[in-house]
Records
---
Amino acid sequence: MPLTEAGIYAAALRLIDEDGVEALTMRKLATELDANPMSLYHHVPNKEAVLRGVTRMVGAQFRTVTLEDAPWQERIRLLAMDFRTLAHRHPELMAYSFSHQPDFIQPDDPFWTALTAIVAAAGVPRSEVSEIAALMVAVVIGVLAAELNGSLHQWSTLKPPGPDDAEDGDGDANPDSADTASEGPDQDHMFRLVMDTLITGLESRLTGDRGGRDAGL
Amino acid sequence: MPLTEAGIYAAALRLIDEDGVEALTMRKLATELDANPMSLYHHVPNKEAVLRGVTRMVGAQFRTVTLEDAPWQERIRLLAMDFRTLAHRHPELMAYSFSHQPDFIQPDDPFWTALTAIVAAAGVPRSEVSEIAALMVAVVIGVLAAELNGSLHQWSTLKPPGPDDAEDGDGDANPDSADTASEGPDQDHMFRLVMDTLITGLESRLTGDRGGRDAGL
DNA sequence: GTCATTTTCATACAACGTACGAAACTGGTA
DNA sequence: TACCAGTTTCGTACGTTGTATGAAAATGAC
C-alpha cells in the first residue's frame, strides 16, 4: 500500500487512540505503515505537521444535527453534546489538540459556523456574536479538557476541606461517603450542569435583567 | 551555592518563564545552576518531578483577599481575578500545568479552600459544593488556558462566517472592520463576561427560577 | 586523621526527530 | 524493448534528549 498523506494521518490517529499523543513516534508510525521512518518525510514535512493533520482530519469529521427552528437553548445544547461526543471518540487526540493546536477551530468549520449561527439566532447583536461564541468554545473546551484528563472527576469528588473551627453539626469524618464508586455517568451530569448554567446566564443577559452588575458588553 | 530542591525549582521556573516549558532541558537547568546535569538527580527523581515541583511551588504562592462578609458573587469574582493574576505571572508554566498536571489543585490549597467556602456561603447545599466548585474551576481554567495560548483572542476576532445565502441588508464585505487593533485589554473584558454569565447562571439556579429545564442536580 | 555518608561529576546508552544522498521504483517516449 | 526523468523509498548518520551507572570529591562525626 503506497503511503499517502491521509494514510499517514489515519495511522497516526490509530496509534494516538491506543497509546496517546506523547507515545507517538515517527519510527512507530513508520512501523505501523510498514515503511522506513524517512519515507514519511516525503508526504509530511515533520512531526508537528502530522499532529496538525490528524487534528484537522478529526475536526473535519464533526457533524451536528442542525435543528434549524428549535429554540437556541436547545440547539446550543445539542451542538455542545455533539462536540463532546467527538471529543470522547478520540480523547487522547482532543486533549492534546485543546492545548497544543490553538487554531484547531477554523472559521469555516461546521462547528464554528453552527455556533455563530445559533448565537446570532439567540439575539446577540452581530458585533458581539464572535465574542460570545468564543466564550462558549473556551468554556466547553475547558470543561471537556478537565473531563478528559480526569481533573473534573477528581475535583468534584474532593471534600470541601476540613472545617478548621467546628461549623455546625454532622461531622461526617469519612472522606468519601457515597459516590466515589460511580465513574462515568456523573460526567454527563456535570457537563449538562455547565451548559445549563451558561445558557441561563446568557438568557439573563439577553433579556436584560442583569443581577445588578455592569450593563452589556 | 549548594544545589537544593527548592533552588532547582526556582531555576526551572526562571527558565520556563523565559522560554516556555518545552524548552526546559535537564542540561539547561543544570547549566543555569552551574552544575552537572546528573547532579540534579540527587535532589529530584526525574524531569517530570521538576515540573510537578515547580507547579506546586507556584500554586503555593497563591494568595487571595478573603472578603469574609461580601456577597458571594463579589467574592467569587475576586477569587477568579486573583487566580487569573497568578496565571498571568507565569503564563508558560500555568498553560502547561492546566493540561499536564491534573492534580495541581490540592484539597488544602488556599484556592480550593476559599472557593468551596464561597460556594457554600452562596447557599449551595453541602453535598453539591464540590461539584459546583469543580465546575467553576474547569470553566475558569478553560478560559484562562484559551486566553494564555491565544485561542480566545483568535476566536473572538473571527468573523461569523460568510452568509451563504443573503440574510438581511448591510453586506459589510470588509472582514475586519473595527477592533482587530486592540490586543490586551479585551481579554479582561472577556474574562469578566464569562464570570458574570456564570455567576448569573448560578444565581438563577439558587433562587429556583429555572428557565424551564431540569430541576436542580 | 580516619571513615561513613552525602553530593557531585564523567561517561555512556537508548530513543528521538530528521538531514543527506543513494537506491529503487514509476510512467512516458523511442 | 530500452531508456530516462521524476518520484518515492530507504540506509546511514548526526545532534539532542532523559537518565543509569559507578567513580570522584566533599562533608561531617569521632
---
Amino acid sequence: MSPIICTVDVVLLTLHDASLHLALLKREHAPFAGVLALPGGYIHAEEDSDTRDAALRTLREKTGIGSAYLEQLETFSGPGRDPRGWSLSVAYYALVPSRLIDHESRPEVVLRPVDQLQGLPFDHPRIVEAALQRVRNKSSYSSLPVHLCGETFTLPRLQGVYEAILGEPINKVSFRRKIEELDILEAIEGQLETGKAHRPAQLYRLKKQYRQHLALTDRGLNSAG
Amino acid sequence: MSPIICTVDVVLLTLHDASLHLALLKREHAPFAGVLALPGGYIHAEEDSDTRDAALRTLREKTGIGSAYLEQLETFSGPGRDPRGWSLSVAYYALVPSRLIDHESRPEVVLRPVDQLQGLPFDHPRIVEAALQRVRNKSSYSSLPVHLCGETFTLPRLQGVYEAILGEPINKVSFRRKIEELDILEAIEGQLETGKAHRPAQLYRLKKQYRQHLALTDRGLNSAG
DNA sequence: GTCACTTAGTTGCATTATTAAACTAAGTGA
DNA sequence: TCACTTAGTTTAATAATGCAACTAAGTGAC
C-alpha cells in the first residue's frame, strides 16, 4: 500500500485596514507551482514532536513568525485533494497582530482580505472557510480576538476588532460588561492613548495567564446594537 | 524517512443506566494485545474516501454499528504515543442510542461508565477526555444529546439525557422553551408514553432535516435550576 | 483662552430572558 | 374514590441586555 502524504496547513489571520486578512505564499514546487496558497508542508517525523510543532515550524520557516495564537482546526483528507495521492492535512489556524508580519524581511508573504479570495489550490478554500467559521463562532463567546491586537490596546480598539470579525456592530455597554466579566485584561496604570482629538482612552493588556489560553463567556457577546 | 503511522480512533458514547458509557474492545494484536482500548485502526488509502469514511468503516467492522452521529474530534500525534513509531490518529466521536449496540452478535463490545475508566492504552485517556469535554460543551448549546435517544422519546426523557451529560439539573421550563426554540422536534400525533403510574407524556421525534445536522442555540441551555 | 467637535466612559431605565414556585392534567394502583 | 406520581402550564420575581442620554477629556479653529 502506498504511504499516506501527511502535511500541515496554517490559516494565518491578521487584521489589516480594519478587516480580516489571510496570509498566502506563492508555491515554489509542483503541484500548483507559482500559485498563492496556504503556508504548509510535510510533517517531519524526525524533528516535529507532534503536528502542532510541525505547524509552528511551518509558520516560522515560511512566514518568519515565531509567536502566534495557534489552534488545531480540523484534519482534511482523501484521495482527490492532492494530485500526488491520498493525502491528509492537519489544518491549524493562527492569529497574529499585523505588526508581527515583517514585510521587509518577508516580502513573499502576501495578505488578502478573507472575503476576496479566489484561485486557491487544493482544498484550501474549504480549509479557509472552516477557519473563518471557527474564528467567528468562537469570537462570539470568547476572548479569541485579543490575539489580533498587539501587546496593548484600548477597549474601543478591541471592540472594533470584534466587530470586524463578527461583521456587525456590538453594543458598547454590553461589550464592556462582557470583557469586564471575562476578567482577562488589566488596565495599564496611567497609560492612555493620546494624540487623538478627543478624550484619550485607557490602555489595557492581557493578564499573563491568558497569553495562550482563552476565556469563555457563559452566554456569548450578543452582537447588534 | 520512515512513514507516519496513520490511524483513526472512535470514542463511541452511549447512555446506559442513565449515565454516559464508552464502548471499548480488547485489542487483538500487539502492542497492548488483550487490553481494552478505543475501537480504531489503520486508514486504508485504497478503500477509504477520507478519514470520516475510515472512522465509519472502523465503527462498522469493530462494533457492527452502521449508523451513528459521527463528528471529527481532533488529531493526536507524536513519536511517543504508539511504540511502533511516529504516529498520527484522527479521532472521531460517535453518539448512539444504546439499543443499537447489539450485545448478542457483538459480545466483545464492552461498555464502561466514562467516570470509571482506567488502564486505557496509548494516549486514549487524553482522547476520551477531549471527547467528553467536547460533548459536554456542545450539549450545553445544541441538540447534540438527541442522538443518544432512540427514534422516539418524551421531553422528560430528553431532559434526563441532557442532565446525565451535563451532570447537573436543568430547569424544566427553560429546557422546554429552548427545545421549542430550536424547532427540531415534532410531536407524534396522538402518541403518548403510557403504562406509567402517572400522566402520560407526549412522544416526539427529530424532524427529518436534523437527522445528521445539529441545531445550535444562541445562548446555551443554562443548566442548574 | 474659549468654543465647537469628537470620542471615552458611565448612568439610569425600558425591555427581554431566565428561574422558581405553584398550579392543573391525567394516568396507576390500593 | 382517593392518594400518589409525573406531565405540562401559568404566574410572578429576578437577572441580563440594550438604548439613550449623560459626563469626561482631549484637539484644533479662531
